[in-house]
Amino acid sequence: MSVTVRIPTPLRKITNGLDKVSTSGSSLAEVIEELEKKFPGFQARIYDENKELKSFVNIFVNGEDIRFLDGLDTKTKSGDELSIVPAVAGGN
Amino acid sequence: MSYVKCLTCKQCNNQYPIDPINVCELCFGPLEVSYDYEKISRSVTRSSISNGPLNIWRYHQFLPVSLENAIDIGTGFTPLIHAKNLGALLGLKNLYIKNDSVNPSYSFKDRPVAVTTAKALEFDFKILACVSTGNLMGSVGAHAAKAKMKSYVFFPKGLEKGKIIGSSIYGARLISVDGNYDEVNRLCSELADNFKWAFVNINMRAYYAEGSKTLGFEVAEQLNWKAPAHCVVPAASGELHTKIWKGLMEMKDVGLIEKVNTKMHLAQPEGCSPIVKAFNNKETQVTPIKPNTIAKSLAIGNPASGPFALKTLKDSSGSAIAAPEEEISECIQLLAETEGIFTETAGGVVISSLRSLVKKNKINSEDITVAFITGNGLKTQEIVEDTVEYDEIKPTYKSFEEIIKI
What we know:
heterodimer; A: alpha+beta; Ubiquitin-like (UB roll); about 15% helix; about 25% strand; B: alpha/beta; 4-stranded parallel sheet; 13 strands
């Protein structure tokens, strides 16, 4: 099963410049663990010391903010599109 | 001459060079422009500012662009009106309206966009882009036209007609997205990563946000170099609220004003008030919501500067108010009928919140209070359409006498 993850610019140094990565996992937390295996150091960039998402990191599963879903426990399935987006955008 | 040092992460203080970036690589925190304040304080005086141009560039030392690259369509130095009539009604002797709805594209957005457009040219961008709740897209269109750049504006479906026309007229390419603002914002964040465009409120956001400080500078200068006791500021992302505060603090830091004891009050519509909720629950983070408000220009459910607005509220001992939806159009009318200023929905939210602050005894009758009116009512006429009444007569003296019972 394969999930596509869109990588924002600040993380591309870790993903060797890739802007999209295909990976696996049946929940968001598992997907992030897989990404850590592929790209060591990935987790530390988006998790705080309690293994929670840093406050300025937003993650979307098929366009929906995971804070409206089940957070890191949000289920993922083959064909899903994940997007990691810095929170600091928009408005004034 | 530039007074800028670098970009600094507001979260972890890591420093970056002056590039079109807005996010810290280490912690994803927002980047902010850092200045050499000693150098600024050596080069500005009250009179050097007073003798400057009657637009935002009179404060160019505090902005991240060289003066020679300034783009000017007449942005800034808008009127600060002593609102005696509305003040008398509310019991406030020193109420002022900062009428920023008379900027070139009829909202305060011209301030950040003027700065960003100039900076985008310095970075050699050819295309200006934005995600907008309505006012920004007009401003981006206007400034791009003046700077001979192309512009692309993205907005949520169902926006007011006045705002759509008010952007397309400048030749902007308009893209209506079938989603709410937060969804459009997410899409544009993804696009900004791969398109070499100056997205004014994404990759250019650090420079963009600086433009809003000029509202704080102007108010202090117009109050004869004093910070007001209260500011009532509308909030969508919360950035304007923090930047007016930053503007006042910078003026104090370089010695242009003596002290800042300003309470920075924040106003949101009840149907989209995530910052107000977080503040009243004493939280340091904002939980996003799905907006449901007639104040479309404030309909951001996931406010990017939420945590910083919360900090500004706390640091300045301000209050956060959620204006009831049904009061918004009533307060648009109230401001128009008392002060001759026709504002959009965000202004209705501000006036309703001001009234609520007075009722809660948060503002004393002598306090110098500034209500920030940031957008123009002609753009959101739909909201007050129902209140319109008029007589129809024949072109005869008699016909007029029939309706004018004196």
